[in-house]
Amino acid sequence: MEQSEDPRNRGRRKRWITILAILIFIVLALGLGLGLGLTLTKKSSSPKATDPFCQSNSDLCIGGYLDEAYYSKKGAFNGSGIAVAGESWNKDQRRIFTLFFQHWSGDLRYMQYTTDRKWIGGDKAQTIASDAKNATPISTVAYALNGTMVFHLFYVSRDNLLRQRTWTNDTNIWDEGLLNKLNLSTYDNPSVGLQACWKGNFYGDSDYTKFPTPSGQENQQHFSERKGMDLWYALDGSTFQQYSWYEGQDQWKAMDKWLGKNTHAGVACYSWGEGTTTYAMMVNQANETEIWWKDTNTTMPSTDEHPINSWRNSSNGAIDNVYPTTSMGYTTYFYAQMADKSMKGFNVTYQAENTTIADSFTITDPAGPVYGLAGTHLTMTAYAEMEGNTTLWDSLYVFYQTKGDDIAAFTRPIKGGEWTEGSLQIPQ
Ligand SMILES: *[C@@H]1O[C@H](CO)[C@@H](O)[C@H](O)[C@H]1NC(C)=O
Ligand SMILES: *[C@@H]1O[C@H](CO)[C@@H](O)[C@H](O)[C@H]1NC(C)=O
Ligand SMILES: *[C@@H]1O[C@H](CO)[C@@H](O)[C@H](O)[C@H]1NC(C)=O
Ligand SMILES: *[C@@H]1O[C@H](CO)[C@@H](O)[C@H](O)[C@H]1NC(C)=O
Ligand SMILES: *[C@@H]1O[C@H](CO)[C@@H](O)[C@H](O)[C@H]1NC(C)=O
Ligand SMILES: *[C@@H]1O[C@H](CO)[C@@H](O)[C@H](O)[C@H]1NC(C)=O
Ligand SMILES: *[C@@H]1O[C@H](CO)[C@@H](O)[C@H](O)[C@H]1NC(C)=O
Ligand SMILES: *[C@@H]1O[C@H](CO)[C@@H](O)[C@H](O)[C@H]1NC(C)=O
Ligand SMILES: *[C@@H]1O[C@H](CO)[C@@H](O)[C@H](O)[C@H]1NC(C)=O
Ligand SMILES: *[C@@H]1O[C@H](CO)[C@@H](O)[C@H](O)[C@H]1NC(C)=O
């Protein structure tokens, strides 16, 4: 006997199916949502978010490029460029030097060190640029010219363009530099070298011929006694491009390409000493620094050993076993980061083809060498406070990062002695 279903039952079943369908839908939707939610949460808290280049070249990278967790949350940017401009020519101001750095927020700011040995500035009001690339190298050149104080600051922007900001005490603002007009693209890489240098030592520098006259003819007019700057920046993994500018010129001009270098490392220069020879230092592909020289004294005969107006490698001036992305600099001593990440100062005797390195020291505290972060930027200066002919006090200053959100300052009397370590107080 066939039992016909009770219509009430059918109705109930239908309701149950509908409820079940709704429940399944809700569970599915929730599951999906939760799943999405979970994946999203997982992604943002993932410990590794490295730059593709850094995945296979971690030696050449620093800070947030290696791991997002390494971005600083206070103080200085992890991998901050660091540059100092001395103001020894500036007798009125009681300032010893200005230090430029990248704030943890990414902005480029400056702080000043006074003759009372106190730091001032570093606040938001001392912001110079907000478009800097993460861990950009920073380079500065400062001088007084014709009664005007001038600061130039060079860095790399987020879109890998070379940038210059210029300040004079006439305007008292950080303005666009002349170089910006050229839109020069740098090597698109997490660590690139960059250095601007006061072109102090040039007399008959043949580079002046690269600056055309208004008629477009080659310039025959020596820029002797003029002032200017040299600049080196990374073009690719092994080439530094040099540019030059002379005071009064309304353009920068391309000079030599320096091939076969490790452009992840820094560049250093020395061009303000006595004589007519200029020096540039770079790291080669064998983790070795090279010291190159160029003599611009055109009244000297040009010989094979000592050519005039030509860059040469000094064969006894090399330093091996440096860290592959070492930053370098020279004031009183030549400094570099070694393969073991310690910081060394070298006493270089600058003598063109006879350039040699007499001796060296390591920056230490009582526990031993004070290691820098691998590939930290590094800068230095020296100062002597004089009263007549008497030195009241003098000091070497070396700055680098040991933690990532810090800028550590190391000081020592010029003639020798213990190093004292301090850390700059960087405002939020
Ligand atoms: C900065 O980055 C380095 C890696 O380059 C890392 O070892 C260090 O812990 C980081 N510092 C901070 C404060 O996160
Ligand atoms: C220096 O200043 C003087 C007077 O203002 C001016 O005549 C001269 O052209 C200036 N020189 C340079 C190189 O700017
Ligand atoms: C700029 O600085 C120089 C050198 O200190 C000084 O002689 C000059 O008066 C200053 N100019 C202005 C406009 O403050
Ligand atoms: C540089 O870039 C700016 C903005 O994109 C553009 O206006 C200018 O023409 C460019 N200059 C050169 C020399 O390419
Ligand atoms: C340079 O140093 C890096 C890291 O210390 C090392 O991996 C590399 O093999 C060195 N290169 C040469 C040519 O010695
Ligand atoms: C250039 O060389 C000549 C010849 O050796 C020398 O007399 C002169 O002092 C040098 N010039 C400078 C500025 O050093
Ligand atoms: C420069 O000189 C150093 C030391 O002699 C040498 O190791 C290096 O290979 C030289 N570089 C070039 C490009 O000649
Ligand atoms: C470097 O070495 C030379 C030669 O030994 C010496 O005369 C000079 O004082 C040293 N310089 C420093 C800064 O130690
Ligand atoms: C380098 O040394 C040689 C040999 O001692 C010497 O003849 C030459 O003048 C020196 N050059 C410089 C620039 O000191
Ligand atoms: C400073 O030294 C110079 C040169 O040695 C000397 O002529 C001068 O008298 C000295 N001045 C003082 C105040 O001692």
Task: Give a verbal description of the structure.
With 428 residues, this protein is mainly beta. It has one domain: Neuraminidase, CATH 2.120.10.70. The chain is built from 2 helices and 28 strands. The strands form 7 sheets. Strands 1, 2, 3, 4 and 5 form a 5-stranded antiparallel β-sheet that branches. 38% of the residues are buried. The structure holds 2-acetamido-2-deoxy-beta-D-glucopyranose (10 copies). One 2-acetamido-2-deoxy-beta-D-glucopyranose (NAG) binds next to loops.
Proportion of helical residues? 10-25%
The CATH homologous superfamily? Fucose-specific lectin
Stretches where pLDDT is under 50 for at least 5 consecutive residues are 26-47
Mean pLDDT: 86
Summed up, the helix count is: 2
What structural category do the secondary elements indicate?
Answer: mainly beta
Bound ligands, named by name, code or SMILES: 2-acetamido-2-deoxy-beta-D-glucopyranose
Spatial shape = globular
CATH architecture: 6 Propeller
What is the C-level CATH assignment? Mainly Beta
For the record, the count of structural domains works out to: 1
Distance between the terminal alpha carbons, to the nearest Å?
A: 88 Å
Largest sheet: 5 strands, antiparallel
Fraction of residues in β-strands: 35-45%
Measured on Cα atoms, how large is the radius of gyration? 29 Å
